[in-house]
Amino acid sequence: MFLVLRDGKWGSVGAKFLVPGDRMRLGLGSVIPADGTIVASRNLSVNEAVLTGESLPKYKKEGEIIYSGSFVATGNLEAEVVTTGKNTNFGKTIFSIERSTQKSILETDILNITRFLTAISLAAVVLLTIVFLCRGALPQDLLTLDISLMIAGIPIALPAVMAIILSIGAAGLAKKMVVIRRLSALENLANVNLLLTDKTGTLTKNEISVSKVVSYQAGLGPDDVIELASYAAATDTPDAIDSAVIKKFKETGRQSTDIRIVDFVPYDSDRKRSTVCADNGSHKILVSVGAPQVIKSLVEFPSVESARQYETDIEQAAANGFRVLAVAAKNDGSQEARMNMAGLLFLADPLDEASSETIRFMKDNGIDVKMVTGDNKMIAQRIAKDLKIDGKVIGAAETRRFCQDLEKQQDEFGGIAAFAEIQPKDKYEIVKAARINYIVASTGDGINDLPALRAANVGIAVAGAVTALKSMADIVLLGHGLSVIRDAILESRKIFVRLYNYSVYRISESFRLIVTILILGLWYGFYPLIPLQLILLAFLNDIPIISLAVDRVTIPPKPAAVNIKERLSLSLLYGLTGVLNSIFLFILMTRFFNFPLPVIQTMFFLKLTVSGHALIFVAHTKERWFKFLPAKEVIIATLSTQTLATVLAVTGFLMPARISFLSAAFVWIWALFWMQVSELMKDLQQKLIK
Predict the structure, then answer these.
(1) Would you state the CATH architecture of domain 209-346?
(2) DSSP letters of 260-327?
(3) Which residues are catalytic?
């Protein structure tokens, strides 16, 4: 409820009942419910972090605009409501966001694989059906076989298996303080080669600290200056700057318990300083802390040189991106005149300890990092320099020209370290421009970041982000700093490799099965497997496949988008090897051993299971399979299904006929031999690519 003036009377009104023209009165800590114009105020500062992402409050005065979603940091105000609800700056940002209908890289990839294998399966089924009908086969018999072949050949479980792999990866990331809201974003994150990161709360700690103290009086050290400043910060409701001064004073190890505050005048936007009269037991001290130029007017410098040094220090501090407070003091006085300049306090938002290491990690792993901040160029340059982000820093005006020149983007984007003085619309345009040549991840914490995060390939809400942003982001970080993103990228690349390996295996297995049955069906006029065997084969294939979700993989050092031609060539080489394997075995069993058809079908089932699951060892790594074995879970799952298939074959359970232990051993030896042939396909693929 808010205190609102209507019809000449003040009364409590709920936020949703506010209308333009209402006059509202807000005090310390109040959340501003609507956009309005300030009519009257006293010592007013407003925290707009939810809108701009910047931690320092902004001082406001009569006639200026206040925005819905921000809150009163100091003082109080009366304001006339201008806009409410979705018409406010906050509301327009939320309601202007359209959910993207564009498919993710992962969703597109799954769809392409499914279409490819489905097309091959249906073509094989149609061709075999026509041939068998022409040879006099009964339609009802063909229907059962055709359905079984489609179940075994079409990757029905492909989306489910990939979802399991992603879900297990997401669960692992949750332990590292990363929440995945859109599973397919994990593959996009693995391919990200540009990170547009906020400064506040991501590269920095989002807390004001006193970085440096400069003294201007002989016999007055930095600790003495910070102690004087702490007198003016010792209030019941310290703001961010007061808290920074108090924290710095505590680091000196000194105590100020003997100090008694006689009089205190808080900072306000007109005086631009706070003043305190303190009694230390022996005498009174008058201290003023505030804007350097205001404090300078209260001070008498002992010499022209000291006054010139004061100006030089302020200019250098500003050039290095520091905010400066001046401290003046006088003994046994009550008037703010003819005071002595005590010193300067350099304020900054300190870097997160892990930021430098994480930036270096990003560079080593093929990810370009650029900072996007609403702070001025000086601050952005200092942060970029400290983090060793190479390139120039450009302001808002140059950024807008840059985003409109597509040719300039391609030539100069890589040479930019940071975008400074950025407004929400600017950040959105930067992301759009970057997506022309990059896979982009963008971080944010305020409502102003919503458009940019929706435009990025991967939108990341950092710790402390507003609820509206978290609900729209692809990934939500619960831990502070950029290092959490590093963990997310590492895990996403593991997931990407697992998905890639699985897709290679899935394509090759389906291709091998479909083409083998097609060739033998056209050649001999029958299916080499009965329908039940096709169903069993599809079931047994899914067991080791699911275990690939926890397979050990080699993390690629660079972003690696799916190379469709490379994957298809490798899959087809594996598949063709499997086809030759099957055809040669079939010829051997029919022409040389003269086995009856039921025995051939059982041996064929065992061979497809053992050989197909052995391919997992080959397909899961680019190294020789015996040099980089799968995870123990994959090995156990694979050996279990191969053993189960062997038991079914030698006992004849669910099979057309049983086979001897000697025949089963022959199938195993045959499968392991062709496993080594499949291993050679890696070398052949590399030669074909070159």
Answers:
(1) 3-Layer(aba) Sandwich (3.40)
(2) EEEEEE---TTT-EEEEEEE-SSSEEEEEEE-HHHHHTTB--SSHHHHHHHHHHHHHHHHTT-EEEEE
(3) 198
